[in-house]
Amino acid sequence: MNLEKIKNTFFKYFKVWWIPIASYSIPFFIFLIGGVLKRNTIVDVSLILFFVNILGNLISAIVQIFIRKWYYLIPQIMISGFLFVFVSIIFIFSPPDYYGANKVIPKNIEIYEPMETEPTEKEFENFDLVLVSDFQPGIYTYFTDYKPTEIGGFYIKAFEITSNDHLSAERMKVRSKVKVENLVSKLYSGEFTIYEGSWGDKYGAKIELWFEPSNGNEDYKITERNYVVEGWMR
Questions:
Q1: Is 147:171 a contact under the CB 8 Å cutoff?
Q2: Percentage of residues of the chain with pLDDT beyond 90
Q3: Total domain count for the chain?
Q4: Is residue 47 part of a domain?
Q5: CA nearest 46: which of 91, 80, 103?
Q6: CA proximity to 198, closest of 162, 229, 219, 221
């Protein structure tokens, strides 16, 4: 295709009113491919092309006014507006997240499945940290019998094992924090949510138990364990 043909095709996109509308099929087709292959990058590309095509529709609508075919801008604006609202609702309330879909859980490490019931005392004979699956995948309760030597609070950090990605970093510290107001021996428990990934797409995560002293001293790690986790679907 020579330069003149490329130029004609470019102008035809804006002048022929139905071409920008038909072009929405391209990002939707790419979105379906991303869903089949479970690749976030492909889904992101489809979303970018979708919004680029919305911009193209708006420019084409303006062109229709200049070429005195203003009545064609009505279906362009209506269809673009409907698709914008439809896609926005999907990505706000139930965005596809394939973070864990293509992760491989290493075979050469010690890794555990979260328990399904509250742990007994025996579970803490070898570990200071036990993870329990909550009522929905991606939501977890952690237990520790570690006896702190100062006032402060426990909290959790989580990292994907193969990439060392810090999971749900902005929310997890606040969500998982458990206050320690005295030094009496007891079983502490807190809750946290992993947002990366979707139900059924399991991957390995290093779950770290941290302590934040109330006197302002530096936080320190108490222990860690590897667990098979999955993300919570919004």
A1: no
A2: 83
A3: 2
A4: yes
A5: 91
A6: 229
